[in-house]
Amino acid sequence: MTTNYPSLQTHPAYDTSCPALWDALRDVMDPEIPISVVDMGLIVHLAQQDGIVDLKLTFTAMGCPAMDFIMDDIRTRLLQEAGVRQVNIEIVWDPVWTKARLSEDGIDIMRTWGISA
Amino acid sequence: MSTSTRRIDHAALFAVLSSLADNKQAVGRRYAYWCNGAPALEAAVAAAAMAQDELGHARTLYPLLENFVQAEADLSQVEPMTRTLHYALAYLDQDFRGWSDFVATNFLFDTALTTFFEAAQQSSYEPLRQRARKIVQEERIHEMHGEGWVRRLANAGGAVRTTLLASLEHLWNETMCWFGPNDDPTMQQLYSEGIVDATPDELRARYLKKIMPTLQGLGIEVPVSFNESSKQWEVRGDLPWEGWNEVGRRFEQAHSS
Fold first, then answer.
1. Which of the residues A109, B7, B10, B74 has the least number of beta carbons within 10 Å of its own beta carbon?
2. Is residue A26 within 8 Å of A106, Cβ to Cβ?
């Protein structure tokens, strides 16, 4: 997937909002629906310091069978980014995921696939 | 496995979390048997989805156990695959005898557990608070499913209704007891420390408020009365505490009926 995250053009590399990492995460897709973990609203918090990424991740359901796949994909993708040498992922359940966490692109994708959003 | 040196020393919370995890795991496993045996295709799909939810709830609860001092004696007890203690209801020791046992578990016991999680949504213990909110969200669908099937089986009449009533009766006492006697030191400690916002009697009252409109509307008799002065449903008579194991939060043996 080719990404074109606008903030890449306007944020300096040391920006703590990590635009490049957010953009990278848009390459990580939900295994069941062709929607990225960003557009799905699964990324709760993202921070980077000294090459270490701390990421808080939620899931749509506690019994999500794809949890391990998604975490592996996130870790693999972020480690491809320059300067990233470690990725720490914490699963959180607060905030509770609802469809309000879908991005506008995510809502469009869900509707395209016939899923109410 | 983490060997954190800052484990929490809290026997009461450890006991209740163990019970919650074991019960979620047991309910999930029992539901799973019915993924291809339910009486309707939609029910089989629902059984699969609910089994996945319940096992997911268990999967998020078990890891909390290793954060407690009480786990240090035997760390194999915090992993569902190596755990030999089983603090799930005795009712769940055996396979469901039929779909009506599934419905009874869904309607009665799963709703009882949800009542506890609702009372923990503002918990002073943050890991439980986080999980409780998500579990309550997911359980809304389970409650609708349980209530819908109780209505369907009860309204069918005849042997179908009779079988449902037997399943509800079979599970009734142990579900009511799960909250503990009102002076239960474990639950009272959780209440006094703000881990849950209700005593055992208050939890039972909240639970009855959830299930009684359905049972009453279907003319299903249970030993419960509405107290006009307190405006609450209350258990009529004594619960069978003589068979209650306060450590396992279960009856000593599965009841026969």
1. B74
2. no
CB atoms within 10 A of CB B247: 11
* Rounded average pLDDT over B60-67: 94
State in words which class domain B11-251 has.
mainly alpha
How far away is chain A from the Cα of B192, in angstroms, using its nearest Cα? 24
DSSP notation for A4-19: --GGGGTS-TT-TT-H
Question: Are A93 and B59 in contact (CB < 8 Å)?
Answer: no
pLDDT of residue A93 exceeding 70, the answer is yes
Q: What is the rounded distance in angstroms from the CA atom of residue B1 to the CA atom of residue B26?
A: 23
Distances in whole angstroms, Cα of residue A49 to Cα of each of A38, A54, B165: 20, 8, 61
Alpha-carbon distance B200 to B72, whole Å? 29
The pTM (predicted TM-score) of the whole model is 0.88
Closest chain A residue by Cα to residue B57: A62
